[in-house]
Amino acid sequence: MVRPLFTCIPFTWTPFTRTLLAGCIGSLAAVGSTGIAAANETPTYDGELSGFEYAYPVERFEFSSQGQDMQMAYLDVQPEEGSANGRAVVLMHGKNFCAGTWEATIEALVDAGYRVIAPDQIGFCKSTKPEHYQFSFHQLAGNTQALLDKIGVEEATVMGHSMGGMLATRFALMYPEQTEQLVLVNPIGLEDWKALGVPYQSIDEGYQSELDKTAEGIRDYQQSTYYVGNWEPEYDRWVNMLAGMYAGEDGELVAWNQALTSDMVFTQPVVYEFDELQVPTLLLIGEQDNTAIGKGRASEEVQETLGHYDVLGEQARDAIPQATLVEFPELGHSPHIQEPERFHEELLNGLTHP
After folding, report:
1. Inter-axis angle of helices 203-211 and 15-26, to 10 degrees?
2. Helices H / strands E in the chain, number of each
3. Does this model's pTM top 0.85?
4. Which residues neighbour 58 within 8 Å (Cβ) at sequence distance 6 or greater?
5. CB-CB contact of 126 with 242 (8 Å)
6. In which order are the strands placed within the sheet that holds 68-77?
7. What gap in Å lies between CA 167 and CA 151, rounded to an integer?
8. What is the pLDDT of residues 163-209, one digit of tens each?
9. What is the pLDDT of residue 41?
10. d(CA 214, CA 242)
């Protein structure tokens, strides 16, 4: 449902519209000025990222979930006839990423003969942003399995980056018979931040924080965390992709879904189940990554203990049966974007062969 930015009359009495009403009463000016500032800096997109083109054709999977009609956008890219190796790779994006962000990885895999499926998960990018949804990694994994069923993919390597690493892990735990191999690219969730001392943030508080997102803030965060202080002009495309949804006509709904999925990430750790994985696992870790969800809410003492990927990668390798670790000592959270040629060489070398 599309809402004007300054509306003060909720259409349906829900947690989402309660938050909107409270914003109208208490902080409309602040929210409005943030939205206007963001719009002046970036392109604007609606809640399904219309107008932002991916490098490959977008298809739609329509299904029902939790009593609602949904559409999941996805890419299904197949190698040229005669070059296919008969194998498939499913790519699971991170929280601040989309299926389109995988474009260089898709090209490398397709050139090597793989069929590549890259969905936008429900709540993200070009897929449905529900007002009411019980987000869980179990639910998103089930949605993805239903998509694979629909398009006839019986077995695949499942590869996840960032939040997608938590989702890919859950998928492999739920569907080991369909998972040929698990590949984790700087996955978050290698530690349990709540158990380590990061205070919980309510969904309402998270929503208000999401409303303040701007291109400048997103760029600063990505530069320090994803690219180890470096910045290349091509990275701005991914900043504008994300910031444009916040700045667009459905910005409040985008922020609401981001708040819901942040709660999912914080409260549903997978690290305690690593020893239950039954499939070969490849860890590709940029060691300069320092991602730790909610770190800014913790004390300085706790902050110093979080997000050490040079240690977390080794701990994950030791916890996961059949795990192989490849480290990139000078790279950050997004090694596949920061140094794609080197990353993809290691990826292709690390994929198991039956």
Report:
1. 60
2. 13, 8
3. yes
4. 73, 74, 75, 126
5. no
6. 59-65, 68-77, 115-119, 88-92, 156-161, 179-185, 281-286, 323-328
7. 20
8. 999 999 999 999 999 999 999 999 999 999 999 999 999 999 999 99
9. 63
10. 9
User: What percentage of the chain reaches a pLDDT higher than 90?
Assistant: 86
**Could you tell me if 161 and 226 are in contact, meaning their C-beta atoms sit under 8 angstroms apart?**
no
| CA–centroid distance for 223 within its chain | 17
CB distance 348 to 108 below 8 Å: yes
In the chain, the N- to C-terminal Cα span, in Å, equals 47
| pLDDT for residue 81 | 87
Q: State CA 10 to chain mean position distance.
A: 29
Tokens of 267: 């409260």
* Coil, helix or strand at residue 270: coil
Q: Is the pLDDT of residue 10 over 50?
A: no
Q: What is the DSSP letter of 53?
A: -
Residue of 186, 160, 161 whose CA lies nearest to 173: 160
d(CA 33, CA 6): 10
User: Please, which pLDDT band fits residue 7 given cuts at 50, 70 and 90?
Assistant: very low
**Would you say 17 and 9 are in contact if contact means Cβ atoms under 8 Å apart?**
no
**Domain residue spans in the chain?**
22-350
C-alpha to C-alpha distance for 48 and 65, rounded to whole angstroms: 18
Q: Tell me how far apart the alpha carbons of residues 6 and 301 are, in angstroms, rounded to a whole number.
A: 41
| Helix, strand, coil percent values for the chain (each to nearest 5) | 45, 15, 40
pLDDT digits (tens, 9 = 90+) for 118-165: 999 999 999 999 999 999 999 999 999 999 999 999 999 999 999 999
Torsion angles phi and psi, residue 81, rounded to 5: -55, 130
Instruction: List the one residue out of 318, 48, 92 whose CA is nearest residue 186.
Output: 92
3-state secondary structure of 228: coil
User: Burial, 274: exposed, middle or buried (Cβ in 10 Å; 0-12, 13-18, 19+)?
Assistant: buried
Distance CA 164, CA 125 (A): 14
Record: fold of 22-350: Rossmann fold (3.40.50)
